[in-house]
């Protein structure tokens, strides 16, 4: 629906001549996709999941994707070389694979867009594609994740770096207001983007797994893309098992197998107990809203795990962009851990819990998060386990990581 404007520009649909241009460039970009299939079969196999849609619309000057379609302005493609057009198509594909589009989550949208563009463009450069001159790329941050680049842009980059423009368009809910009233406004009915939601994110994860299994040229991928893909497709140990192994390994005391653990006697079970110093564990919960669905199953598993220890000192930290709550639980209290009231739902920073416990180091720290937020650059002096949501990613290179399964939430 066309929005009401304070002025009365001419608002029209694409002309017959413009519709013809759209058809011509659609055919040309289909040919570019065939060329990509010959040169980069892995990326091209993923590109086949996107419908190419040419649009002539005042709200779209370059290209954009909603996870199902790639919308592109023919005039934008006309300004690019054949190699750069292929790069733009691959760029949209990897935005979908990486799940960047719904991940702003309280961040500065412009800086987050720059950060995600850098991450994608770095992968494509490593894969030998021709990057357009207008594309965002910070050579000194080669190989850094979008989260690391965002933190740099937010805190260290100069104005010229922060003022760059993205190669493509990430925000598609653009108002006609503010567009030049001296020109006519074109509204193309074919420009009808949808919402990149959790279902689409899951579909792209499945697409990635299928492409990895089917593409014979997978072994010829650049080291960067191969590492990126492996981290998202290789089977992993069940997160529950890894959590238990991690905590038990960090437990500093010796084990004694008698007498039986008292807390299990009421169930008629005579299980050996672990007797030594207290398990001093810190658990940090990302309460920005990104783990809301996963929180109950995580807390339930954590409760089951901690009640198997005779002596526990649990420091539970709830944090979004800052610490919202700190609670200390003992072994006779952890049975009600899964009834914890969650506080927060603001922005995201993974740094405050590490600062909080730096002076009184725990045996280990377990962090439930989606990983999309700034984290300490250097590893702490104690073991860390990142328990990530199904579509989350490890925010830093240090620490151990595991993913919750999507169907458990």
Q: Find the structural class using helix and strand composition.
A: alpha/beta
Strand residue content: 5-15%
- In the predicted model, the low-confidence regions spanning at least 5 consecutive residues are 253-259
Q: Indicate the percent of residues in helices.
A: 25-40%
Mean pLDDT: 84
N→C terminal distance:
37 Å
Number of helices: 12
Count of DSSP E strands?
Answer: 11
Describe what you observe in this structure:
Residues 282-404 form the VWA-like domain. Pfam families: DUF2201, DUF2201_N. The model is unreliable at 253-259 (pLDDT under 50). This protein has two domains: 11-231, no CATH class; 239-408, Rossmann fold. It is an alpha/beta fold. Strands 8-7-6-9-10-11 form a six-stranded mixed sheet. A three-stranded mixed sheet has the order 2-4-3. The protein has a two-stranded parallel ribbon with strand order 1-5. It contains twelve helices and eleven strands.
Quick structural summary:
By secondary structure, the chain is an alpha/beta fold.
What distinguishing features does this structure have?
409 residues, alpha/beta, 2 domains, Rossmann fold, elongated
Topology record:
Elements: E1 11-12, H1 16-39, H2 41-47, E2 51-54, E3 63-65, E4 69-72, H3 74-78, H4 82-98, H5 109-126, H6 146-155, H7 159-162, E5 185-186, H8 198-214, H9 223-233, H10 239-250, E6 279-286, H11 295-306, E7 312-319, E8 323-330, H12 352-357, E9 364-369, E10 384-388, E11 400-403
Parallel strand pairs: 1-5, 2-4, 6-7, 6-9, 9-10, 10-11
Antiparallel strand pairs: 3-4, 7-8
Helix pairs in contact: 1-2, 1-4, 2-4, 4-5, 5-6
């Amino acid at each position: 629906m066309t929005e009401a404007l304070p002025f009365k520009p001419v608002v029209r649909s694409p002309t017959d001549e413009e519709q013809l241009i759209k058809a011509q460039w659609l055919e040309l970009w289909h040919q570019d996709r065939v060329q990509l299939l010959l040169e980069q079969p892995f990326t091209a196999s993923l590109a086949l999941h996107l419908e190419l849609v040419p649009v002539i619309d005042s709200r779209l000057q370059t290209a954009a994707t909603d996870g199902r379609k790639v919308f592109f302005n023919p005039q934008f493609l006309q300004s690019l070389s054949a190699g750069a057009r292929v790069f733009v198509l691959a760029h949209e594909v990897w935005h979908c694979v990486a799940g960047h589009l719904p991940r702003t989550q309280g961040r500065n949208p412009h800086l987050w867009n720059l950060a995600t563009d850098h991450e994608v463009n770095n992968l494509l450069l490593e894969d030998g594609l021709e990057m357009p001159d207008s594309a965002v790329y910070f050579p000194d941050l080669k190989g850094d994740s979008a989260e690391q680049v965002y933190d740099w842009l937010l805190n260290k980059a100069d104005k010229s770096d922060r003022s760059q423009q993205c190669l493509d368009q990430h925000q598609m809910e653009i108002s006609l207001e503010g567009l030049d009233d001296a020109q006519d406004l074109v509204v193309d009915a074919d420009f009808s983007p949808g919402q990149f939601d959790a279902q689409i994110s899951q579909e792209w994860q499945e697409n990635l797994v299928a492409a990895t299994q089917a593409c014979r040229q997978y072994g010829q991928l650049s080291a960067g893309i191969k590492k990126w893909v492996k981290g998202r497709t290789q089977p992993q140990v069940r997160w529950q098992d890894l959590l238990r192994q991690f905590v038990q390994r960090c437990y500093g005391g010796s084990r004694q197998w008698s007498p039986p653990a008292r807390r299990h006697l009421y169930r008629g079970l005579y299980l050996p107990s672990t007797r030594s110093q207290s398990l001093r564990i810190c658990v940090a919960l990302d309460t920005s809203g990104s783990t809301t669905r996963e929180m109950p199953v995580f807390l339930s598993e954590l409760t089951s795990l901690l009640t198997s220890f005779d002596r526990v000192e649990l420091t539970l930290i709830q944090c979004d962009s800052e610490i919202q709550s700190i609670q200390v639980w003992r072994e006779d209290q952890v049975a009600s851990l899964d009834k914890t009231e969650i506080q927060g739902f603001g922005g995201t920073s993974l740094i405050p819990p590490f600062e909080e416990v730096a002076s009184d180091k725990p045996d280990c720290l377990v962090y439930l998060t989606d990983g999309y937020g700034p984290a300490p650059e250097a590893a702490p002096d104690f073991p860390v386990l990142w328990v990530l949501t199904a579509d989350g990613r490890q925010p830093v290179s240090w620490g151990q990581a595991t993913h919750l399964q999507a169907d458990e939430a």
